Amino acid sequence: MTEHLLAFSQDLPTEPKVVDTADHIRRAADLFGRSLQGRIRIDINLEDDLWPVRVDAAQFELALLNVALNARDAMPEGGLLEVSARNVTLDAGRTRLAGRAVAVCLRDTGPGIPRGVLGRVFEPFFTTKARGEGTGLGLSQAYGFAEQAGGALRIQSEPGKGTEVTFLLPAASDVAVEQDAPAPDRRS
Ligand SMILES: Nc1ncnc2c1ncn2[C@@H]1O[C@H](COP(=O)(O)OP(=O)(O)OP(=O)(O)O)[C@@H](O)[C@H]1O
Ligand SMILES: [Mg+2]
């Protein structure tokens, strides 16, 4: 399955550059704040001085949006979406990921995901939504994005206890943040 997902993620156009992590999370949160229709409270909790990450900025914001939209769909009566991010240092061993990374976590207070479903949610076209309401591509985009950034996507969920999706993105420290446009020349 992983190979299948990797092939899928490689089809996405990508233009990685070093970005300000907090900036992009706030931009995405702004965007989904408007699409959550006010029923859902959004709490944003970003550690100061988050390390920059090297990602495709558009894919990053889309991935955050896809995860937030799932939280919205899971909480039709309202609830809480917590967006948090912190710098972490991962031990070598368990996964190929080691060293400095930024963990970006979206947690909702929805009904959670049954165990039998949880193992399939990253599969392209896997959806439990009614025909016409979901294509099953949201989380596979998020998964492909995280892999392409050299990171990983994790999901934890238990019925009755909500859902938590975590992006682990390798820190691009030691490199300056690349700006969209050169800084304006302030000399007169
Ligand atoms: N926060 C969540 N709470 C409960 N179930 C979830 C959550 N996020 C994902 N799921 C489950 O995982 C499935 C796959 O999610 P994914 O985002 O890939 O597709 P989708 O939301 O069904 O469709 P699309 O994102 O293309 O509109 C969902 O159909 C749903 O069953
Ligand atoms: Mg979705």
From TrEMBL:
EC number(s) on file: 2.7.13.3
Query: InterPro entries attached here?
Result: HATPase_C_sf, HATPase_dom, His_kinase_dom, Sig_transdc_His_kin-like_C
Q: Which GO terms describe its molecular function?
A: protein histidine kinase activity
Q: Cross-referenced SUPFAM superfamilies, in alphabetical order? A: ATPase domain of HSP90 chaperone/DNA topoisomerase II/histidine kinase
Output the SMART domains linked to this UniProt entry.
Answer: HATPase_c
Annotated Histidine kinase domain ranges read 1-173
What catalytic activity is recorded? ATP + protein L-histidine = ADP + protein N-phospho-L-histidine
PANTHER family (alphabetical): HISTIDINE KINASE, SENSOR HISTIDINE KINASE
Query: What's the protein name?
Result: histidine kinase
Origin organism is: Roseicella aerolata
